[in-house]
Amino acid sequence: MWPFSKKGPSGFSSSSTAEQVTHGVDGTGLTAIVTGASSGIGTETTRVLALRGVHVVMGVRNMIAAKDVRETILKEIPSAKVDAMELDLSSTESVKKFASEFKSSGLPLNILINNAGIMACPFKLSKDNIEMQFATNHLGHFLLTNLLLDTMKKTTLESKKQGRIVIVSSEAHRFSYPEGIRFDKINDQSSYNNWRAYGQSKLANILHANELTRRLKEDGVDITANSLHPGMIATNLFLLWLFFCFIYAGLVNVIGRLVLKNVQQGAATTCYVALHPQVKGISGKYFSDSNVAMTTSQGSDADLAKKLWDFSMNLIK
């Protein structure tokens, strides 16, 4: 990261790590679901939440990888409460099965972190015949949130603690299609652009949080919903993309050290929004570097958010 990263109003910056932004926060008694927790910032989010006493349920496709993550965390934090449940967000059947099994477990749910995602994939349809990035990054999380909302409401009422829904978006939302969401062309392969489609799915994450906030406030429910940009993370996928952009591995390594976050920094904003007392009562906002940030005009378009909600509801019926 840049060596001179400036702290924002929260007291944190792009260089802050997940452990730093949650220092002194006691999450004992809280239960969280983290999707996509078997790698990257999902794993670090799980580790740091567990370190702060939160009981974390990992929603993952790869149960073998999840087992390794759990064992690694338990070696570091013997008292950690970490479980794993199978979840494929591109499949409505899998999402419904996960939600049903979680509710059957009788566990409370204080925090839902919609973290999992895929990036800039070639055109492909999900099992439900929805473009894969839109299906995985937005629709699966939209359905999961809807199915678990009653559990969160019940937990909030019984625990007297505010529930938090955290949706991981990306600055790529700024590079969505000109119309924002291509409702009539989502499954149109002839007009498909993998990066634009990725941006569209990330814009959908922000709009989902915004419209969910409006509905929760209407219902008088003490649950917040916020979206965030984790930063450019030095993952293998992103470095591979940089490699093809610059066609020079040495330059990639230099750029990676200077402008990309490591995983510990990449998970910071997620953990901040999920746990920090400063975020209590804040809803419908977009965060970056553990501070409230500005989104685009499309990202704050209430009419577009309502249209996306109705469109998504029709898809999951």
Structure description:
This protein has eleven helices and eight strands. The protein has an eight-stranded mixed beta sheet with strand order 3-2-1-4-5-6-7-8, with helices on both faces. With 317 residues, the chain is an alpha/beta fold. Mean pLDDT is 92; it is low at 243-249 and 251-258. The chain is globular, with a radius of gyration of 18 Å. β4, α5 (132-159) and β5 form a beta-alpha-beta unit. Helix content is 46%, strand content 12%.
Record keyword descriptors for this entry:
317 residues, 8-stranded mixed β-sheet, 11 helices
Helices, strands, pairings?
Elements: H1 18-21, E1 31-35, H2 40-51, E2 55-60, H3 63-76, E3 82-86, H4 92-105, E4 111-114, H5 132-159, E5 163-168, H6 194-219, E6 223-229, H7 236-246, H8 249-259, H9 263-266, H10 268-275, E7 286-288, E8 291-293, H11 302-316
Parallel strand pairs: 1-2, 1-4, 2-3, 4-5, 5-6, 6-7
Antiparallel strand pairs: 7-8
Which bin fits the share of residues in helices? 40-55%
Please give the count of helices: 11
Shape: globular
Query: What is the averaged pLDDT score?
Result: 92
**Strand percentage, roughly?**
5-15%
Q: Give the SSE string.
A: HEHEHEHEHEHEHHHHEEH
The assigned structural class equals alpha/beta
- Low-confidence sequence ranges: 243-249, 251-258
What is the radius of gyration?
A: 18 Å
The major β-sheet equals: 8 strands, mixed
Question: In which order are the strands of the major sheet placed?
Answer: 3-2-1-4-5-6-7-8
Determine the N-to-C terminus distance.
44 Å
Please report the total strand number as a whole number.
Answer: 8
